Structure prediction request, 288 residues.
Amino acid sequence: MAAELIDGKKVAADIRAKLATEVAELKAKGIAPGLAVVLVGENPASQKYVSSKEKACGEIGIASFAHKIPATITQAELRTLIDQLNGDPKVNGILVQLPLPKGLDEKEIMNRISPAKDVDGFGPDALGKLVLDEPGFIACTPHGAMKMLEAYQIDPKGKHAVVVGRSVIVGKPLALLLLRKHATVTIAHSRTTNLKEVCLKADILCAAVGKAKMITGDMIKEGAAVIDIGINVTAEGKIVGDVDFDAAKERAAYITPVPGGAGPMTIAMLMYNTVLAAKMQAGIPFTV
Ligand code: GUN
Prediction:
């Protein structure tokens, strides 16, 4: 049986349409959400992501302030820019596109972003709040994965969710969000010895490793929901996920495509966090 496609593009478009309405209402009250996007160097993938983010801002009515900076910037200069953006009232959210070029201390820069403007949700304040089940910015990719499950009425409660990948920006927060929704959660990673058996237990299988087609069809439980968070470029220049889509769709009940799944959702949730940041900074109660 072929799986039902989880259409991330459509779910993202719905979220963006709602945000556009909300932004218009906020603007009528004198609140104009703004996002600063910092791109250092010339990484082609980063350039592409940043232009998608700027385009999304434009469509929703969020002001975007682009800072495209040569890779020769020093740590001190970049730090000064972050400080300026932290203090700029027109900037509600700050996004520093990763990875930063070699020689720059990524962690120090990310941690310098004011917690009130950390729309990526990568900083200690956001991640601490996630662990504590307190409202806060949720990292965009895992938040997007949860929104896709929600849109297709896939309730994690009581289900076994397996997250393959333990990164701070995707795997760990996604595991916590699934736990928050009452799933039984396993986090698998590169040192997991029996990955196939672990994956075969998953009612919800989330792949966030960054390795093309590493999740093969025989690792999918019949009827599972498969959320593919990988974005990999093959030698032929094709974009593929971490899951062997053609094989997996024969066993899964639901599956996200790559592209058209997690990618557009990440951008939609960044817009969501920026609107949230603007509301929070205007004293409007913060609920997620
Ligand atoms: N690089 C790849 N994905 C992301 C993301 O979601 N946020 C940032 N800041 N950099 C990235």
